[in-house]
Amino acid sequence: MKSRRKTSRVIYHIFVCAFGLLMIYPLLWMFMSSFKETNTIFLTAGTLIPEKFVLDNYINGWKGFANISFGTFFKNSAFLSVIATIGTIVSSSLVAFGLARCRFRGKKLLFGAMLLSMMVPAQVLMIPQFIWYQELGWVGSYLPLIVPYCFAIQGFFVYLMVNFIESIPKEMDEAAKIDGCSYFGIYSKIVLPLMVPSMVTAGIFSFMWRWEDFLSALLYINQAEKYPVCLALKLFADPGSSSDYGAMFAMATLSIVPMIAIFIFFQRYLVEGVSTSGLKG
Predict the structure, then answer these.
(1) Which InterPro entries match (predicted)?
(2) The whole model's pTM is what?
């Protein structure tokens, strides 16, 4: 029996490692290709290790376009992602607290409508949103990429936080009410400090989604100096002439570094937020 268990464990780990390598191979190939000479990337696509390591792709890619360095694009992405993420966390936590702790008519109806909103494809809302923002004069600015996430309900994050808040004992709320705390006082002094794991989890997902939101930036941003990283990367590919794929791969490699760093740094909160959100106190 022990030998069978050891054999099954070895087979399991071999399968998991092979599957993990298969999933990470495209990223590994992109990273290694960023050190190849541009004109040899697709000629040596079958080999992972470059014959000659060069840093020209990173140097040329960082120069950017039209006197706009790639650092500007990183600053734009960081600004959009951070502001939208902060707005998402604050608005979602307030809505989640109201749905989890406050009593009012139509709460179940609103909660059900919020869940239904998660099932609506974003492409369905794309045209009416664009017309609306165009009438407001927001097209060409960052407002369509920030304001909706600060004041509109993000169903997934609200649902995550509602489940987390419901795992917090209500006796703490009752004790705070006896001491004279209002609903906002209970939210800010008791619930908010305890729901940090769920907020960090929502923040990681929100930052990742805003950082790589190519379609929204393509619709609303029409000036090169305002481009985020995801939109600036496409400028390396020119269908009318030669494309600098080496610089593209180099900048694409740098573009995923912030997300990897955030995930590693907040991994403990991410696991705690996801695992605890389904518990009931």
Answers:
(1) MetI-like, MetI-like_sf
(2) 0.84
Q: Could you list the residue range(s) of the whole structural domain that residue 74 is in? A: 67-237
C-alpha dihedral (90, 91, 94, 96), degrees to nearest 10: -110
DSSP state for residue 120 in the 8-state scheme: S
Say whether both 52 and 109 belong to one domain.
no
| Section 6-20 average pLDDT | 88
- Shared domain for 186 and 90, answered yes or no, is yes
Same domain, 47 and 105: no
Chain-centre distance of CA 191, in angstroms?
24
Which letter, b or e, does each residue of 140-170 get, where b requires 16 or more Cβ atoms within 10 Å of its Cβ?
Answer: ebbebbbbbbeeebbbbbbbbbbbbbbbbee
What is residue 272's predicted lDDT score, i.e. its pLDDT?
Answer: 63
pLDDT single digits (tens) 170-229: 888 888 888 888 888 888 888 888 888 888 888 888 999 999 899 999 999 988 899 999
pLDDT higher than threshold 80 for residue 279? no
CA angle 11, 13, 15 (to 5 degrees): 70
Q: Is 252 exposed, middle or buried (0-12, 13-18, 19+ CB in 10 A)?
A: buried
Looking at residue 146, what is its pLDDT?
92
